[in-house]
Write a structure and sequence with these properties.
The protein has helices at residues 12-28, 40-45, 69-75; strands at 2-7, 32-37, 53-56, 59-63. The protein is 39% helix and 27% strand. β3 and β4 form a beta hairpin. Strands 2-1-3-4 form a four-stranded mixed sheet. The longest helix is centred in the first third of the chain and has 17 residues, at 12-28.
Length: 77
């Protein structure tokens, strides 16, 4: 199971990103846990300055803007 964290203040882009990741994971049959991280100190600890950020298994894979579906699919392979 992959642990995916969506870093952001809870803005619409952050919500869209979390839903997109969950939808892609379900479509591909990949078990994931999607967590939202909204605490600014935790976000800054990852070095993310532009949200939403995406962390998979404690590695930052994306920062700034909603990722494309193709990008999310590549993360979950």
């Amino acid at each position: 199971m992959k642990t995916v964290k969506v870093l952001g203040s809870g803005c619409n882009n952050c919500k869209v990103t979390a839903k997109l990741i969950a939808d892609v994971a379900q479509a591909k049959g990949v078990a994931v846990t999607v967590e939202k991280v909204e605490e600014i100190r935790e976000i800054m600890a990852y070095g993310v300055l532009s949200t939403p950020g995406v962390v998979i298994d404690e590695t930052v894979v994306h920062a700034g803007g909603v990722p494309t579906r193709a990008k999310v699919e590549s993360w979950l392979q």
